[in-house]
Amino acid sequence: LMSDARQALALAQQGRAAEAIALIDDLAVRGDGEALWARGLWRVEGRLLPRDLAAAREDFQRGDEAGHMQAARIHAAFLATGAGGARDWAGAVDSLHRWAGNDPIAARQRDLIAAMDLDEAGTPRTTPPHQIVNATPYIARIEALLTPAECAFLADMAEPRLKPALIFHESRKRFVADPVRDSDAAGFPLVFECPAIHALNRRFAAASRTAVEQGEPLQVLRYH
Predict the structure, then answer these.
(1) Which of 217, 201, 197 is nearest to 112 (CA)?
(2) Cβ distance 124 to 117 under 8 Å?
(3) Within a 13 Å sphere around the CA of 169, how many CA atoms are in the beta-carbon half?
């Protein structure tokens, strides 16, 4: 049988937005984890409900507390990045420890982060040295910026979300498939920037001598 929250999602797909919102709000008031997760996503997307990251974060937190794994994953991401509220790296890592027994992705992140040399904010204490290839323009290579385990984690997280990479067609004013490019792409925007990926983003920022806020969402490409 379809859960009440799934019925709300089905109503939304049918274009019955008012009914979907009323049902999801009623379920959320009663602490339904799946409903809180769904409403949080709606508030992030800004489609059925106004975009409101602070309210979304509250929904994900309550969904986490209700035992909904997907809500917990996004809540940990919001804590790690500071989306919708104050950044709480310690809280994000604590979430991984709490969920490690039930969520293999949380357990994997916990182990990866434990192996990283991070300060209390999740920033790397050191980065590998730049090996200068060319002075002007400045080109450098950095050996072993990621460990094999970190690379495997990124590949595994990207695998189910890979889609053919697109390019923006200026005359058509939309994204289209490129006749030459043969890569698939998977991005890790807001709700997918889990604590381990956020820690890697902070490492990329430190290595490139930039602020993490200057970076785009991490993207994994697979070339055929």
Answers:
(1) 197
(2) yes
(3) 10
pLDDT (tens digit per residue) in 127-181: 889 999 999 999 999 999 999 999 999 999 999 999 988 888 888 888 888 778 7
Give the Cα separation of 61 and 26 in Å (integer): 17
- Find tokens 């008031």 and name the residue: 29
Query: Measured between alpha carbons, how far is residue 56 from residues 9, 33, 40, 49, 51 in Å?
Result: 17, 13, 4, 10, 8
Written as six digits, the tokens of 143 are 């050996």
* Regions of the chain with pLDDT less than 50: none
Query: Strand (E) positions, the chain?
Result: 131-134, 139-141, 163-164, 166-169, 174-177, 183-188, 218-223
pTM of structure: 0.91
Polymer length of the chain: 224
Do residues 186 and 220 lie in contact, with contact meaning Cβ atoms separated by under 8 Å? yes
Residue tagged 């998977």 (tokens):
186
Asked whether the beta carbons of 89 and 120 are under 8 A apart, the reply is yes
Four-residue CA torsion sign, 194, 199, 205, 207: negative
CA atoms within 13 A on the CB side of 176: 9
How many Å apart are CA 32 and CA 62, to the nearest integer? 9
